[in-house]
TrEMBL record:
Organism of origin: Sphingomonas rustica
Database matches in InterPro entries: YdhG-like
Top-rank taxon, per record: Bacteria
Segments forming domain YdhG-like: 25-129
Top-level taxonomy: Bacteria, Pseudomonadati, Pseudomonadota, Alphaproteobacteria, Sphingomonadales
Protein name: DUF1801 domain-containing protein
């Protein structure tokens, strides 16, 4: 079985954020870092070369594949912020109140935090963390 590429490392999260080229995305990354750390009660950890994760859990699929991943996280990509929020992107009614965004399987894509409702985003992050905590208690 292939080794996971996204594993926790000892990279400097603040230095990583400082290297984000776009000044708005850099400030948004700092804000997300504070928000997710506050919600999760966990420090930011660099996972792989470009994902900032909070907390950790071990998963195991019915196929037998297992591994470790972060409970919630984000990545300040070049064109947008990617928030990794397991199970929080499946409520279309709730997402309709968020503002300008798009979704993937368990990802929320946002150009800038100013485009979304902060209270709705906070709730989505909390919902994702609750779902992970429920499925994978510590």
């Amino acid at each position: 079985m292939a080794e996971a590429k996204t594993v926790p490392g000892d990279g400097d999260v603040a230095a990583f954020i400082d290297r984000v080229e776009d000044p708005v995305r850099r400030e948004d990354a700092r804000s997300l870092c504070r928000l997710m750390a506050g919600i999760s009660g966990q420090p930011a950890t660099l996972w792989g070369p470009s994902i900032i994760g909070f907390g950790q859990y071990r998963y195991r699929y019915d196929s037998g594949r297992e591994g470790d991943t972060f409970r919630i996280g984000f990545s300040p990509r070049k064109s947008e912020l990617v928030l990794y929020l397991t199970g929080a992107t499946d409520d279309a009614g709730f997402l309709a109140r968020l503002g300008k965004h798009r979704t993937g399987k368990s990802c929320l894509y946002v150009k800038r935090l100013g485009d979304v409702d902060a209270a709705v985003l906070d709730r989505l992050i909390r919902r994702a963390l609750d779902r992970v905590d429920s499925a994978y208690p510590s």
